[in-house]
Amino acid sequence: MNDDLIGYLIATDSIDEFLGYEPKCPNCNSKMIEIIYGMPDSTTMEKAKKGELFLGGCMIEDENPKYHCNKCRRSYFDDLKKYINEPNNWE
Ligand SMILES: [Zn+2]
To answer: Would you say residue 7 lies in a domain?
Structure first.
Protein backbone atom coordinates (compact mmCIF):
# COMPACT_ATOMS: atom_id res chain seq x y z
CA MET A 1 0.00 0.00 0.00
CA ASN A 2 1.27 3.45 -0.79
CA ASP A 3 0.14 6.87 0.39
CA ASP A 4 -1.48 7.76 -2.92
CA LEU A 5 -3.79 4.78 -2.65
CA ILE A 6 -4.72 5.54 0.96
CA GLY A 7 -5.38 9.17 0.03
CA TYR A 8 -7.58 8.06 -2.83
CA LEU A 9 -9.56 5.67 -0.63
CA ILE A 10 -10.15 8.32 2.01
CA ALA A 11 -11.11 10.92 -0.61
CA THR A 12 -13.61 8.59 -2.23
CA ASP A 13 -14.95 7.36 1.11
CA SER A 14 -14.08 3.74 0.27
CA ILE A 15 -11.42 3.14 2.93
CA ASP A 16 -13.86 1.20 5.12
CA GLU A 17 -14.74 -1.11 2.27
CA PHE A 18 -11.09 -1.57 1.39
CA LEU A 19 -10.20 -2.56 4.95
CA GLY A 20 -13.11 -4.96 5.20
CA TYR A 21 -15.11 -2.74 7.52
CA GLU A 22 -18.10 -4.54 8.99
CA PRO A 23 -20.76 -2.25 10.36
CA LYS A 24 -22.47 -3.01 13.64
CA CYS A 25 -26.15 -2.55 14.29
CA PRO A 26 -26.78 0.74 16.11
CA ASN A 27 -29.63 -0.95 17.98
CA CYS A 28 -28.13 -4.21 19.29
CA ASN A 29 -24.45 -3.84 18.35
CA SER A 30 -24.27 -7.15 16.53
CA LYS A 31 -22.51 -7.56 13.21
CA MET A 32 -24.65 -6.76 10.22
CA ILE A 33 -24.70 -8.50 6.87
CA GLU A 34 -24.56 -6.95 3.45
CA ILE A 35 -27.70 -6.63 1.36
CA ILE A 36 -27.33 -7.93 -2.19
CA TYR A 37 -29.59 -6.72 -4.99
CA GLY A 38 -30.50 -8.24 -8.31
CA MET A 39 -31.06 -11.86 -9.33
CA PRO A 40 -29.11 -14.07 -6.92
CA ASP A 41 -27.07 -16.98 -8.30
CA SER A 42 -26.90 -20.32 -6.45
CA THR A 43 -23.89 -19.32 -4.34
CA THR A 44 -25.64 -16.14 -3.24
CA MET A 45 -28.80 -18.09 -2.42
CA GLU A 46 -26.84 -20.53 -0.25
CA LYS A 47 -25.21 -17.69 1.64
CA ALA A 48 -28.55 -16.00 2.14
CA LYS A 49 -30.00 -19.21 3.62
CA LYS A 50 -27.08 -19.39 6.04
CA GLY A 51 -27.65 -15.79 7.01
CA GLU A 52 -24.36 -14.57 5.63
CA LEU A 53 -25.99 -12.00 3.42
CA PHE A 54 -29.42 -10.58 2.79
CA LEU A 55 -31.30 -10.61 -0.50
CA GLY A 56 -32.77 -7.22 -1.25
CA GLY A 57 -34.61 -8.34 -4.37
CA CYS A 58 -34.48 -7.06 -7.91
CA MET A 59 -36.02 -3.67 -7.29
CA ILE A 60 -33.33 -1.04 -7.42
CA GLU A 61 -34.61 2.21 -5.97
CA ASP A 62 -32.89 5.56 -5.78
CA GLU A 63 -31.82 4.71 -2.28
CA ASN A 64 -31.68 1.16 -0.98
CA PRO A 65 -30.75 -0.10 2.46
CA LYS A 66 -27.22 -1.46 2.55
CA TYR A 67 -26.89 -3.59 5.68
CA HIS A 68 -29.23 -5.96 7.47
CA CYS A 69 -29.34 -6.89 11.15
CA ASN A 70 -30.45 -10.48 11.68
CA LYS A 71 -31.40 -9.88 15.30
CA CYS A 72 -33.53 -6.78 14.89
CA ARG A 73 -34.70 -7.60 11.38
CA ARG A 74 -33.87 -4.15 10.28
CA SER A 75 -32.33 -3.09 7.01
CA TYR A 76 -30.17 -0.03 7.46
CA PHE A 77 -29.30 2.62 4.95
CA ASP A 78 -25.74 3.71 4.33
CA ASP A 79 -25.61 6.26 7.16
CA LEU A 80 -26.98 3.69 9.69
CA LYS A 81 -29.54 6.22 10.88
CA LYS A 82 -32.47 5.29 8.71
CA TYR A 83 -33.79 1.74 8.54
CA ILE A 84 -36.77 -0.29 7.46
CA ASN A 85 -38.18 -3.40 9.12
CA GLU A 86 -37.81 -6.53 7.00
CA PRO A 87 -38.16 -10.19 7.88
CA ASN A 88 -35.10 -12.35 7.35
CA ASN A 89 -34.85 -14.22 4.05
CA TRP A 90 -34.94 -17.63 5.66
CA GLU A 91 -37.97 -17.17 7.87
ZN1 LIG B 1 -29.67 -5.19 15.59
So the answer is: no
